[in-house]
Automatic annotation (TrEMBL):
Complex formation: Homotetramer. Forms an RuvA(8)-RuvB(12)-Holliday junction (HJ) complex. HJ DNA is sandwiched between 2 RuvA tetramers; dsDNA enters through RuvA and exits via RuvB. An RuvB hexamer assembles on each DNA strand where it exits the tetramer. Each RuvB hexamer is contacted by two RuvA subunits (via domain III) on 2 adjacent RuvB subunits; this complex drives branch migration. In the full resolvosome a probable DNA-RuvA(4)-RuvB(12)-RuvC(2) complex forms which resolves the HJ.
Similarity comment: family membership: Belongs to the RuvA family.
Name recorded for this polypeptide: Holliday junction branch migration complex subunit RuvA
Organism: Romboutsia faecis
Chief place of localization: cytoplasm
Keyword hit for Ion transport: no
Amino acid sequence: MYSYIKGTIEELYLDHIVIDNNNIGYRINVSSNTLKDLQLGNMAKIYTKLIVREDDMSLCGFSTKEELEMFELLTSVSKIGPKVGLGILSFASPRQLGAYIVSEDIAKMSKAPGVGKKTAERIILELKDKIDKQNIEFEPTLLSQTPVAVSQDEAVDALIALGYSTAEAKEAVDKCKKTGLNTEDIIKKSLSYLMSQSLR
């Protein structure tokens, strides 16, 4: 019904905003990721999803199409409603969530509010084949937080976890490995190489 609403941010709360469009104030439920992109009194374009229930109608809003798309994926999973979907998007960015799902990181997914181990397993099972593997932020899940020594095997394993075949992963790493690069750098360069090959 509504693709987006463009207007002035009149009110900001912990879990929702009020945006004025032609003197009509729309109350829109948002994640903290969207909230941090908004400022009181500023113009904003909010992508929206209308939620219709027997006893209620409400709007969920997102500062980017990327977040809206992840919300739609999350709420397509059984027993994941709008409130839990927004809670998950407040826990991590869409790209980070994509990485958790693709790498089957149940431990990280289960830390999201309203998500236990069983729900995390269900999210991963239902969505791992629907995630855009070229639009994820893999560092938080596949790599340690501190620099590590170059490991060709780790880089290959990470690419396989992202959905590439063993042959593709090995070819990309062989092309991109250089002395002085850590695993993270090798993976980034390998992903760029694989994406450039797919566009040919």
